[in-house]
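Dear Dr. V.,

Thank you for agreeing to look over these. As mentioned in my earlier message, I'm a first-year student in the group and I'm still getting used to reading structure tokens, so any feedback on how I've presented them would be very welcome. I ran two proteins. I've put each sequence directly above its structure. The first is here:
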Amino acid sequence: MEQALQAASTINLLECALLQTRPLFRVRLPITLLFLLFSLSAQASVNSDFRAAREAYQKGKYEQFAKFARKIPEDHLLAPYIRFWHLKTGAPGNGALQQFIDENPDTPLSDRLRGDLARQYGRAENWGDFRAQYQAMLLARSRPDQELQCFDLRRRLAEGGKVEAEGVALWRTARDLPSSCDPLFTALAERGALTPDDRLARLRLALDANNLRLAREVNARLSPELAMEEDALTRARRDPERFLESAVNTAGQREAALYALTQIAKDAPEAAARVWEAQQGKFPDTEQRYGWSQIGMHASRRHDLRAPTWFARAGTPQSEAQLLWKTRISLRASKWLDVYSSIEAMPESLRNEPVWRYWKARALKALNANYPANVLFAKLSQEINYYGLLAEEELPTRLEERPVEYKVTPDDLKNAEANMGLKRSLLLRQLGDSGNAVSEWDWALRGMNDRQLLAAAELARLDGWYDRAIITADKTRGEHDFDLRYLAPYRDLATAYAHNNGLDEAWVFGLMRQESRFVDYARSGVGASGLMQIMPATAKWIANQLGLGRKAHAGVSNPETNIRFGTYYLKHIYDSLEQSPVMATAGYNAGPGRARRWQGEVPLEGAIYVESIPFSETREYVKKVLTNAMFYRNRFGGEARTLKDRLGTIPARNLNQALPEDETAP
């Protein structure tokens, strides 16, 4: 509508100029200019009709939708959406759906319909047609959801395939699974592949995740000689210590008792150890050791240095979470042999993650095994992440091989501009349909090489779509453009306010990139808003500290206000937390009170403090912000600092200082 008004206004002005011109000096506009003006007006009108059609469809006003849909030309860029909505408003046959899929393979709309068809065939157990749709989704690099995965396992089972291992692996989860999985698990149980032990294992996983609804559902399918009592979990939650003192005469009841022990350990590991010492004799040896591991794990989350003693009573931890926290508490205690042993005990998938490859190398280095340590550091140093930077700094000499930088050429950009999926995405964004815009963008990126990805990222940058530009540039594997990965919009504002508050601008940009990807209208689920994601209560406090008007905090979404408030608050936290960038970054995300509580009784290496942050979201947040800061410093120039220097040493906690309650604002 804005485009139509602007075009119409331009034409009116030109008409007025013509009318006011004397006949002797007639002015004739070039035909091409007139054609352009009318084309813009027509395009704006069609876009307006598309908006109206979409709104009518979303509100279920299908007659009104049809009225506006008729105005959209068949060759319009977004015509597939009109045809898709037409299909959704009626009861089309499978042939019509398949025709749409075949005619529109370059849009995610076809993938949605293919998923609908696959679900329909799966529910009818029409395995031949299901297989065709499912295989086509895989060929299109789509990612079938768990409902479709279960249908596919059922298909393979019906066709005589061996799916037992995959089915049991799918079963062993603490998450709820779709109903399409139920017949699969029933069939596996009838064949003896899904055993009572597998059911008990899932019961434990559900209880560890506090998914009590799932735990009760799994328990209901256990035989009477295995199941817990119907009210067991209610009693275990209400009075866990008393529950542990009661009789435990089935495997399910013992799982409820271990759940009760865990409830005590979360808040008071020492009390849990005392209770378990008295009650463990009623349990088999493996469950006794599991109980000690649970106590050790929750003590580790609280940074209780008695945790290694409780882990020692458990032997090798029995769950991934227990192993991870045994490793982290060993790091805080500088027990490098235990760090190495715990990492070696991890499943291969965990052991090969960058985090544990790095700490395995550090453990080897601490144990004077320098050659194998440097081999690990050298390989890891080629990766573009937090641990890659840390690994490079551990090497005795810097490797010459660096990631390849590539700059988008005009031809690259021209090809990106011609990509129909990217074009649809940008138009959808212009028309306010961010959900479909992102879906179109992501669908268009499938199969792109590095140069095509960078061209798409540059196209997004030129459109001011900063988060999509960054996310797209982050996907490259061999050739990279770090200026695109680490965009710096609003630099004048951010640099000025960073300097006003005595902050490193690279750190400020690292935090903004992580908080919002420079989307100035970003709003979190808990109400934080703007480039630096400031909570309403924090904004109000900052406005008061700055001596601004009573309603000044209401404008916190405005980029300038948001950066001004965010840098002021970051400086406040920085000064209150030992001027440690690590603690201040953690405090910005989780609250300064928590950042103080995570200090140790002795000084800690910054990287070890970060690795042992109890909240996974905050732990990853700190790593990413400080990694971002490194790349921004490289981009901006100035004094170079290593990541290890940025992480620094975290001073010991003042044991005489009372710790405040958790907070996100002063």
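The second protein is here, in the same arrangement:
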Amino acid sequence: MRNKQRTLRLIGGALLLSLLLGVLALTLPAGSAVSAQEPVTLVETHADPEDYVWDSADVTQIALSDGAITVDGTGATANGSTVTITAAGNYSFSGTLADGQIIVDTEDDGFVRLILNGVTISNSSSAPIYAANADDVMIVLADSTTNVITDSPNYVFASAEEDEPNAAVFSKADLTIYGNGSLTVNANYNDGIASKDGLIIASGTITVNALDDGVRGKDYLVIDTAALTINAGGDGLKSDNEEDAGAGYIAITNGVFNITAGGDAISAYTSVQISDGQFPLVSGGGSMASIADTESAKGIKSDLSVQIDGGTFTISAADDALHSNGSVTVNGGTLTMASADDGMHADAALTVNGGAITITNAYEGLESAVITLNGGSVTLNASDDGVNASSGDGGGFGMSAASAGTYLYINGGYLAVNAVGDGIDVNGAITMTGGVVVVNGPTEQMNGALDFDAGFTMTGGWLVAAGSAGMVQTLNDTSTQPSLLLNFTATQAAGTLVHLQSSDGTDVLTFAPSKAYQSITFSSPELTQGTYDVYLGGSSDGTATNGVYSGGSYTGGTLYTNFTVSSMITTVGSAGGMGMGGGRGARGGGRP
């Protein structure tokens, strides 16, 4: 047990510990791993409310000055430009070391607090702050102070077998950073701030310029209400313990995270869980950059699970914007993403329960073996497939949903797709029970607005999909909501209105596809048995969203044809090429 002082003083503002204590009980959601497993319980953090209070009368004062360091109190010694902390306790630092170091080396069980009260420390051969041995270490950024830590490109180690410390601020013990001051870390050798155990950032304004990773907590990285600006040659925020079950996670409650990274902006082995905050993230040079296949430059990445509950995200990534080898779940937040690869990718399961997601550009918008849309809104632009449900095995003619292991479930929410390749490409089956789907699909005849191998069952919701007619497919006749496949004899110009109204004049659909089109698939609860007229051209004074008009009046069009709905599937006109009434083989998911 730590020896806590009984006379306590609160340093710097209100304590924000809800995440730090709550994260002890966090688990990965069931089914988030690649195979069905029991939930993984995350390792406990070292957070304790008493960490943030101490006896203000029991602080050793240390004034830094090259060759003339003064120590007023016990537990610390000075030798030249090096201060060594040898006992648990509280130590306040002020002043400058042009080439010096603070070393923590104690066998005590108690807490070591390093209170930075306006310091500038540089070191030409090692880490300016090095916690070599301790129970727990806290760096306190005193109110309204500016603190700067800088290392050099060249570290000198005692032997060739040693490679630590390897960060400008380096701890072999659990590390906490806290306070209302600021800290700038210039890491010219390797990482900026690193803990070989757990790292908690409870508050503070922190800037890290790092040759490699910006901020790294091996067992976990937990952040609450801090403001971080990171420029990293490697990853921005990182937790990478792959050996201990439940370790290697990042949990963020709130804050501002302005991260520019050569690698991944945020990367964790086990999970990334974000509750709120602002996240301007750039990885690998951004969405217009090109990286080697062996490199990773994702916006947010985890091997097992990524969960977004809230926050505002602006992500520009040379790789996937959101990525997990297991599951990605979005429950809320506002996400604007651009990617040179996938907008959102999960090997096993991708689920959207809420939030407002905009993918301004990507190779493929959404990709996973199983994609489930329950709520929220997704608007995406893709240079290949908009939505790709693929297990990566390449698919094939006649493949069943079970053998493909790929599904798209649309139960609610809003999905708008603008795709150069297939609008929605599923190597298995599609089931739609609710929600709204608008697809502005391909113009090239070897792609389709809808492409599925094991059927599309429609039992509810609202769907319109426009595109080429060469590979067009119909929905399943086992659907319980009627659908229409309308094939035109000639390609219609982009922006040409297509208008459907019932025989009594009730408007059912007014749609202006954004690209040239020759085929439209439509299903709506308003499409019931009866006779309908199809008009082309004309205009509407309603409000258009992704080409679909609501309200207002339609006028001036030319009657193209009429049709009668008498069964679940109604087909008007014929389409060229393959695909009528059945599935076709799929490529299996784009770039690796």
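From my reading of the second output: The chain has a mean pLDDT of 89. DSSP finds two helices and 57 strands in the chain. Does that match how you would interpret it?

Kind regards,
E.
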